[in-house]
Design brief:
The chain has 347 residues and is of the alpha+beta class. It has 2 domains: 2-116 and 274-345, no CATH class; 119-203, Pdz3 Domain, CATH 2.30.42. The chain is 52% helix and 18% strand. It is built from 9 helices and 10 strands. The strands form 4 sheets. The protein has a 4-stranded antiparallel sheet. The protein has a two-stranded antiparallel ribbon with strand order 1-2. α5 crosses α7, α6 (248-262) runs antiparallel to α7 (267-289) and α6 crosses α9 (316-345). The chain is globular, with a radius of gyration of 23 Å.
Length: 347
């Protein structure tokens, strides 16, 4: 069951990504040759307005195929070809994929927060003898900022403590309608293996409305986006090792663990947890695809910016070689991460 759920989640977020490419491409007058859901042999297909829609046997991802993808050597791009579209239309088409991932994450967040509620930054309690208590924080205070970063969800506070290296943080909190600022240096906790301020939160908003749910859904997606950026920064600086990263196998294992831990609480709890994982992965895919790496949407966007600066389109063959090099790097990285994921299963 966990494998099936993992495949469905992966399929959902990738198809959403590819659907974004297709929808904007068609709106820009770019011909879309095929649109796949899944991979492998085709189970079902039909053609509408020049696009062949296919349902394939393996429910893992999908693809949006333009008519000039993988062309023959004698192919000449015609009207409606992606390569003949203006650079502005190509940029919009490329960026539509990550944008739709953020849209999907937002829509799923509405469901998750609408059914389970959201946590505010109001403190439930402050631990005795903690740095927070020494700074004067107490239960009922609402944290507004950590340094210059505004926080709306208690998860954001947890995220900042997870990546803390013991640096002093300027905490802006609100008490009785008045904002105050204190400097707090977190203390290392041996049990949890990280620096802590000594605060307990996670209180739900008792006055939740439809409009507040929509607003906090935006905050929730933003939280996961920040999570990805902080994780990437930690990886670049060496604080997170390559063998600590997870790929498809690792995510599937995590889905299995969450499923087994929550299935005794009923189908609704399982659904909420699976949707929460989908929010995380969709936001992750959106951010990662925007990185300026050849082969990814961000790499293509960078090439189009170069095209705008030089006033001349980059040779499609050169662009193809750059993309192939990027894909080779991505495949190698994916293989290494997958190897580490499989190795963890046998530890």
């Amino acid at each position: 069951m966990s494998i099936i759920i993992s495949l469905l989640i992966f399929c959902l977020i990738v198809v959403s990504h590819e659907y974004g490419h297709m929808l904007v491409a068609k709106a820009c007058g770019i011909n879309v040759k095929e649109f796949w859901v899944g991979f492998g042999p085709t189970l079902f297909s039909y053609t509408r307005k020049g696009t062949k829609y296919c349902i394939k046997i393996i429910p893992l991802g999908g693809a949006c195929v333009f008519e000039d993808d993988n062309p023959d050597e004698d192919y000449v791009p015609g009207e409606g070809a992606f390569l003949n579209a203006s650079v502005g239309k190509r940029i919009m088409t490329v960026l539509a994929g990550p944008f739709f991932n953020f849209i999907l994450a937002f829509l799923l967040s509405i469901i998750v927060l609408g059914l389970s509620g959201y946590t505010t930054t109001e403190l439930e309690s402050v631990n005795t003898g903690s740095p927070a208590e020494a700074a004067g924080l107490r239960a009922g205070d609402r944290i507004v900022k950590m340094d210059r970063e505004r926080v709306h969800l208690y998860e954001e506070i947890i995220l900042n403590t997870q990546f803390s290296q013991g640096e002093t943080v300027a905490i802006t909190y609100e008490r009785d309608g008045v904002q105050n600022v204190v400097n707090i240096t977190p203390k290392y906790n041996e049990e949890y293996g990280r620096y802590l301020f000594g605060i307990v939160g996670g209180l739900h908003d008792e006055n939740q409305t439809v409009f507040s749910t929509l607003r906090y859904s935006v905050y929730y997606v933003n939280f996961w986006i920040k999570n990805v950026f902080k994780s990437l920064k930690a990886m670049v600086t060496g604080r997170v090792k390559l063998d600590e990263m997870s790929g498809i196998v690792g995510v599937a294992a995590a889905v299995g663990d969450v499923y087994n831990e929550t299935k005794s609480y009923g189908a609704l709890i399982v659904l909420l947890n699976m949707l929460n994982i989908a929010v995380l992965l969709s936001a992750n895919l959106g951010v990662v695809n925007l990185l300026p790496i050849p082969g990814l949407d961000g790499g293509k966007f960078l090439l189009y910016i170069v095209e705008i600066i030089r006033g001349k389109q980059i040779d499609p063959k050169l662009e193809g070689k750059i993309a192939v090099a990027g894909f080779a790097f991505i495949i190698l990285l994916t293989a290494v991460i997958m190897y580490n994921d499989i190795a963890k299963l046998f530890r």
